């Protein structure tokens, strides 16, 4: 477990392996964006929640630092769009609509665990 403060003001709190973000962690960016979830070799990778600075969030799966897999977009007004922006995303773009409540719940749980772990340090 550790803390990193990058030159651009980005802060990481969480698990580290060989000096890289790996495992559960929280990354906060200078513009107000934030990611809570799983990391692998410095990338968002696995399940997590990403909030943009404007309040929009994605709850779901990430691969290699990108939105990639099943998940749900929620806009800053609390809506999910119409039709609902839930399904399979590839390189940050929705390619197929599909209900995926289990993936969203897992992303929320992983984000909670990452936050709780960082508060213990």
Overview features:
1 helix, nine-stranded antiparallel β-sheet, MORN, alpha+beta, 17% helix, single chain, 121 residues, Histone H3 K4-specific methyltransferase SET7/9 N-terminal domain, MORN4
Biggest sheet descriptor: 9 strands, antiparallel
CATH architecture: Single Sheet
User: What is the strand tally?
Assistant: 9
Number of H- or I-type helical stretches: 1
Lateral strand order in the biggest sheet: 1-2-3-4-5-6-7-8-9
Kindly state the percentage of residues in helix.
10-25%
Q: Mean pLDDT score, rounded?
A: 95
The radius of gyration computed from the alpha-carbon positions, rounded to a whole number of angstroms, is 14 Å
H-E string: EEEEEEEEEH
Distance between the termini: 7 Å
Strand content bin:
over 45%
According to CATH, the fold-level topology is Histone H3 K4-specific methyltransferase SET7/9 N-terminal domain
- In total, how many domains does the architecture comprise? 1
**What structural category characterises the helix and strand content?**
alpha+beta
CATH class descriptor name: Mainly Beta
- Contiguous low-pLDDT stretches (5 residues minimum) are none
> What is the global morphology?
globular
Organism: Papilio machaon (Old World swallowtail butterfly)
GO biological process, one term: response to axon injury
Pfam family, one: MORN
Subcellular location: Cell projection
How is this structure best described in words?
It is a single chain. Helices cover 17% and strands 51% of the residues. The mean pLDDT is 95. The chain has one helix at 101-120, and strands spanning 2-5, 11-17, 20-28, 34-40, 43-51, 57-63, 66-74, 86-90, 93-97. The protein has one domain (2-119): Histone H3 K4-specific methyltransferase SET7/9 N-terminal domain, CATH 2.20.110. It starts with a strand and ends with a helix. The chain has 121 residues and is of the alpha+beta class. Strands 1-2-3-4-5-6-7-8-9 form a 9-stranded antiparallel beta sheet, with helices on one face. β6 and β7 form a beta hairpin.
